[in-house]
Amino acid sequence: MKKEYKIQGLHCHVCVDKIRTSLAGINGVESVFVDMGEGEVHIRFSDEIPVDRLNMIIGELGDYRMIEKNS
Questions:
Q1: For 7-63, what is each residue's pLDDT tens digit?
Q2: Residue 9 CB-density burial (10 A; 0-12 exposed, 13-18 middle, 19+ buried)
Q3: Structure pTM?
Q4: Confidence band (pLDDT; 50, 70, 90) for 71?
Q5: Which of 42, 61, 62, 69 is the residue whose CA sits 20 to 30 A from 18?
Q6: If phi over 0 gives left and psi between -120 and 50 gives alpha, with beta otherwise, what is residue 44?
Q7: What's the burial of 45, exposed, middle or buried (CB within 10 Å: 0-12/13-18/19+)?
Q8: How far is CA 15 from CA 46, 56, 61, in A?
Q9: Element containing residue 53 per DSSP (H, E)
Q10: DSSP state, 9?
Q11: Distance (Å, whole) CA 55 – CA 42
């Protein structure tokens, strides 16, 4: 399953790398693409992970927050 999120707090490519690396390390995440220009994150899951849990994980990295986009 694939989900798309808007993300707040991205300022540079270091932010993109931190977010991508952190999310890719979560059990159940198959792939992560972070688009800094669009302010979006695309995640492919083997098992869906609630956005609250994802926000808890990336919140430890800095002032980041993801909001699920409507399909």
A1: 999 999 999 999 999 999 999 999 999 999 999 999 999 988 999 999 999 999 999
A2: middle
A3: 0.90
A4: low
A5: 69
A6: beta
A7: middle
A8: 25, 16, 9
A9: helix 51-59
A10: -
A11: 14
Rounded distance between C-alpha atoms, residue 1 and residue 10, angstroms: 24
Grade residue 70 by pLDDT with cuts at 50, 70 and 90. Answer: confident
What is the residue whose two structure tokens read 């792939």? 31
* CA within 13 Å, CB half, 70: 0
Domains detected in the chain: 2-68 (3.30.70.100)
